[in-house]
Design a protein that fits this description.
alpha+beta, 34% strand, 3 helices, four-stranded antiparallel beta sheet, 125 residues
C-alpha cells in the first residue's frame, strides 16, 4: 500500500523500481522563428541540458506587451529534461534568446513511458 506524499516533499521516489516521474520536466519556450528555436535547441542538446527538442513552426501568438495587444508568428520549442537541470536550462535560453522577456515555462512530467524517461535521464548531464 502506498500512502499519499505531496510532490513538493520529495526529490526522488521509487516504488517497486518505478522511476519517479516528478524528476522530469517539459519546457515550453517561444522563439521569434524556427531558426532561432533550432539554434537554441541544438545548443541545449549539445550541452546536455536537454535530451530532446521538438520545434513547432508557424504558431500564431496573441499577447499584451507594454500595454498593447500584439500578434506575432512564432515557433515553439519543447525541451525534455530532468527537473534538476531546469534552472541551468532557463539561464542558457535567456543568454541565447532574442526576446527581452522570453516565455520559458517548465511543466512537470507526471506520466510517461519509463524507458523514454530513463533515456532522458541518461542523455542529460
Amino acid at each position: 500500500m502506498c500512502s499519499f506524499v505531496p510532490l513538493w516533499q520529495y526529490d526522488a521516489f521509487f516504488e517497486n523500481d518505478r522511476i519517479s516521474l516528478v524528476n522530469f520536466s517539459l519546457l515550453h519556450i517561444t522563439c521569434k522563428d524556427a531558426e532561432e528555436a533550432k539554434t537554441i535547441g541544438k545548443i541545449l542538446v549539445e550541452e546536455k541540458l536537454a535530451a530532446c527538442i521538438n520545434i513547432l513552426k508557424d504558431v500564431h501568438s496573441i499577447y499584451r506587451w507594454k500595454g498593447k495587444i500584439e500578434e506575432a508568428e512564432e515557433a515553439v520549442l519543447f525541451a525534455k529534461t530532468t527537473a534538476d537541470l531546469v534552472p541551468k536550462l532557463i539561464t542558457k535560453v535567456k543568454e541565447l534568446h532574442s526576446y527581452d522577456c522570453p516565455c520559458i515555462v517548465s511543466l512537470p512530467i507526471m506520466e510517461g513511458n519509463e524507458e523514454y524517461l530513463r533515456w532522458i535521464e541518461e542523455s542529460c548531464e
